[in-house]
Amino acid sequence: MEADWTTEAPAKDRRVRRSRAALMRAAVELVSERDSTAVAVSEIAETADVSRQVLYQQFGDRDTLLLEAALDLVRRELLDNLTDDRTPDGERASMLALGRHFAAHRRFYRALLTSSSAFALNKALTGLFLPINRQHTARLLGRRLDERGVEDLAAFLTGGAAAVVNTWVIEGPEPLDPEEFTDRLMRIRGVVTAMITKEPR
After folding, report:
1. What is the pLDDT of residues 26-79, one digit of tens each?
2. 134 and 184 share a domain?
3. Which one, 53, 80, 96, 142, has the greatest CB density within 10 A?
4. Angstrom distances, CA of residue 129 to CA of 160, 161, 167, 183
């Protein structure tokens, strides 16, 4: 008798989603507690209440799990809080949401940014934030730059912002102050916007 995949597959999908979510939560929790990525796969699996085999099946290895956990955190807790930046209030609200997110999860991100996962994390986060900066750049300079120019400038701004955020997360004072950091970001953004929108002589 053939299996009824119409009922079995969705149940399996739900189990997979639950175990993935549990593993990512466990990874964030344990890395944050230790302030280090040196957490055994067996500990993560035990905290998530799944087997090591499930972890390997879902993520392949610990580094991939940590990277996916970071991206999941950003998607769930930050991206939806980034508001329309076409007004000063919206721009500040987005910057503040960014600061609050990285301050709240500082120990987790600091551990990743000072580990062998740093390059992969920065590359993946660039993939998430670049489209936002590309859209902003195109809105500001779409008439003055071609598509390649918009892409290059958006990549430049995304990389620069990442360097500032990374330094703040790794080296900033305890506790991090999202309001003060937002003021810093707004000053930088104001200067950069004025420079790139200035009409050439």
Report:
1. 999 999 999 999 999 999 999 999 999 999 999 999 999 999 999 999 999 999
2. yes
3. 96
4. 12, 10, 17, 20
Q: What is the CA radius of gyration of the chain?
A: 20
Nearest to 121 by CA among 131, 110, 132: 110
Q: Flag whether 100 is in a domain.
A: yes
Burial 174-199 (b: 16+ CB within 10 A, else e): eebebeebbeebeeebeeeeeeeeee
| The total number of structural domains that make up the chain | 2
Same-domain pairing of 49 and 142? no
Write down the pTM of the prediction. 0.87
Is residue 155 domain-shared with residue 186, that is, in the same domain?
A: yes
